[in-house]
Amino acid sequence: VQFVESGGGLVQPGGSLRLSCAGSGFPFDEAIMIWLRQAPGKVREGVATSAPGGATFYTDSVKGRFTISRDNSKNTVYLQMDSLKVDDTAVYYCQEHGSTTWGQGTQVTVSS
Fold first, then answer.
1. Which residues does the chain have with pLDDT short of 70?
2. Per-residue b/e over 61-75, b at no fewer than 16 CB within 10 Å?
3. Which of 6, 35, 62, 109 is 20 to 30 A (C-alpha) from 42?
4. What are the two backbone dihedrals, phi and then psi, of residue 81, each rounded to the nearest 5 degrees?
5. How far is Cα 50 from Cα 33, in angstroms, rounded to an integer?
């Protein structure tokens, strides 16, 4: 099982970024995929979830600003992040629900 995240970077408040995560080693089209983040000094938290049937879920702090989507043909899950805030600064990870494997993550820094 492997997760490879990409797309992070430095962006000003109010800006946008699109993260990608390629998963392998498991049946991606059957997987519940989760985006999580860990800010400095804080515990890792779930941000958005994509279920195989199309349902999506978001933590309250990102509702209306972040959108999770997936392309099963590419074994890839995306996180479109709009109206970014300084508090969104973190390392972002993706993971299959129930997996104990972590990717390297991708750093998102929101700063003026």
1. none
2. ebeeebebebeeeeb
3. 6
4. -115, 115
5. 5
Cβ neighbours of residue 107 under 8 Å, at least 6 residues apart? 8, 9, 91, 92
What pLDDT score was predicted for residue 6? 98
Residue 8's φ and ψ, nearest 5 degrees, are -70, 175
Find, among 92, 101, 102, 103, the residue nearest to 19 by Cα.
92
Give residue-wise pLDDT tens across range 102-111: 999 999 999 9
CB 2 within 8 A of CB 101: yes
What is the C-alpha separation between 89 and 39, in angstroms, rounded? 6
DSSP secondary structure code for residue 86 in this structure: G
Q: What tokens were used for 57?
A: 């879920």
